[in-house]
């Protein structure tokens, strides 16, 4: 009984994150409609779908206020990064294949090299920051700066694209704003039957972000309850948890929950034939997760509370999980660049790698 309550809370918050991220995606897609393929996926799509990771890491660190909280953030980002790099491309391929859109997908090698090299640089940087104990404003600034340079490079080298004009189509299922809100249709609740414009898309962006933030805060609390040996909930005392470190709970449960938006956005792009955006969203999300979802909380926390000091156990977990992530990223990069396209075989390899990662975490940090 004890474990059922936080698990149900995790499921509920995951649904809210998914629905709110859908509204965030529609608003951000409208605002970034004139960005070229690959750039939109790596920036607008990646940022919008990675908001849960950023907010979850901030809540883990600020809410728990110690190094264990930071390890929860690292676990969420690392687990999400592995999920993004392996499960999202694999699912995109499978959807295209089983919907009989195509047997394989082809992506720009230039996009893969650009995003993968930046991701590897970001991963090496966070490993060195933790190893040399630069978990202060300087370490946070370095990570944030890498992402700023990455975005600047893409915009400078972006190919010009013809302006996209959205045609207004009334939502046939729209009844009223309250009904839309009950269905968690944030697009309908905010936009209604009006035309999508810059002003209301910004409002939709902010409303969606608010609900994502609330959901991530509850997700962090649910993960904390799952990891405790005994906890109380709404006056019910001595409920049983799994008695596991928050870092382990976050790397498996929180990571998968916060990766739902990335998966949905990439699958939608793949079904439309936007394969570059589908894959660059997954890789770009990982760059955002490491540079911003870890870098920004480190920067904010150190400015408020001072440098983060890790215990030997948290240090060992963080370094180990990030090195495994780095190795898996290199293998994933090779899977992407070898051959002219990606089919079911490569999708199976990527899924197997994710399964290996979960088994590794359970064997080395749970048992």
SSE layout and pairings?
Elements: H1 4-31, H2 39-64, H3 67-98, H4 109-131, H5 137-156, H6 177-182, H7 186-191, H8 198-227, E1 230-233, E2 236-240, H9 246-258, H10 260-272, H11 275-305, H12 312-337, H13 344-366
Antiparallel strand pairs: 1-2
Helix pairs in contact: 1-2, 1-8, 1-9, 1-10, 2-3, 2-8, 2-10, 2-11, 3-9, 3-10, 3-11, 3-12, 3-13, 4-5, 4-11, 4-12, 5-11, 8-9, 10-11, 12-13
What's the pLDDT, averaged over the residues? 82
What is the overall silhouette? globular
Radius of gyration (CA) equals 20 Å
Pattern of helices and strands: HHHHHHHHEEHHHHH
Give the total of domains. Answer: 1
For the largest sheet, list the strands in their spatial order.
1-2
Structural class: mainly alpha
CATH third-level topology: A middle domain of Talin 1
Q: Give the % helix.
A: over 70%
Oligomer: single chain
| Record field, number of beta strands | 2
**Can you say what the CATH homologous superfamily is?**
NCX, central ion-binding region
């Amino acid at each position: 009984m004890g474990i059922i309550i936080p698990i149900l809370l995790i499921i509920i918050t995951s649904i809210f994150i998914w629905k709110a991220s859908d509204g965030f995606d529609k608003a951000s897609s409208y605002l970034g409609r004139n960005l070229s393929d690959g750039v939109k996926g790596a920036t607008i799509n990646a940022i919008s779908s990675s908001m849960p990771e950023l907010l979850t890491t901030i809540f883990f660190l600020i809410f728990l206020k110690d190094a264990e909280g930071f390890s929860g953030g690292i676990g969420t980002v690392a687990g999400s990064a592995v999920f993004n790099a392996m499960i999202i491309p694999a699912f995109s391929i499978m959807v295209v294949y089983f919907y009989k859109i195509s047997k394989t997908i082809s992506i720009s090698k230039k996009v893969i090299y650009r995003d993968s090299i930046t991701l590897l640089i970001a991963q090496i940087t966070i490993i060195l920051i933790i190893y040399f104990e630069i978990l202060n404003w300087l370490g946070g600034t370095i990570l944030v700066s890498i992402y700023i340079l990455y975005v600047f490079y893409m915009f400078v080298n972006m190919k010009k694209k013809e302006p996209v004009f959205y045609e207004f189509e009334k939502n046939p299922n729209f009844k009223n704003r309250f009904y839309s809100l009950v269905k968690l249709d944030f697009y309908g609740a905010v936009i209604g039957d009006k035309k999508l414009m810059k002003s209301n898309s910004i409002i939709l962006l902010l409303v969606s972000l608010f609900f994502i933030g609330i959901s991530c805060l509850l997700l962090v609390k649910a993960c904390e309850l799952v990891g405790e040996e005994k906890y109380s909930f709404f006056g019910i005392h001595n409920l049983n948890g799994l008695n596991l470190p928050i870092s382990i709970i976050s790397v498996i449960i929180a990571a998968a929950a916060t990766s739902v938006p990335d998966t949905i956005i990439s699958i939608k792009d793949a079904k439309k034939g936007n394969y570059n955006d589908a894959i660059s969203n997954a890789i770009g999300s990982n760059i955002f997760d490491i540079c911003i979802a870890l870098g920004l909380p480190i920067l904010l926390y150190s400015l408020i509370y001072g440098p983060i000091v890790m215990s030997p156990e948290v240090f060992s977990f963080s370094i180990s999980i990030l090195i495994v992530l780095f190795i898996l990223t290199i293998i994933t990069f090779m899977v992407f660049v070898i051959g002219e396209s990606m089919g079911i075989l490569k999708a199976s390899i990527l899924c197997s790698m994710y399964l290996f990662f979960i088994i590794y975490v359970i064997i080395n940090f749970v048992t």
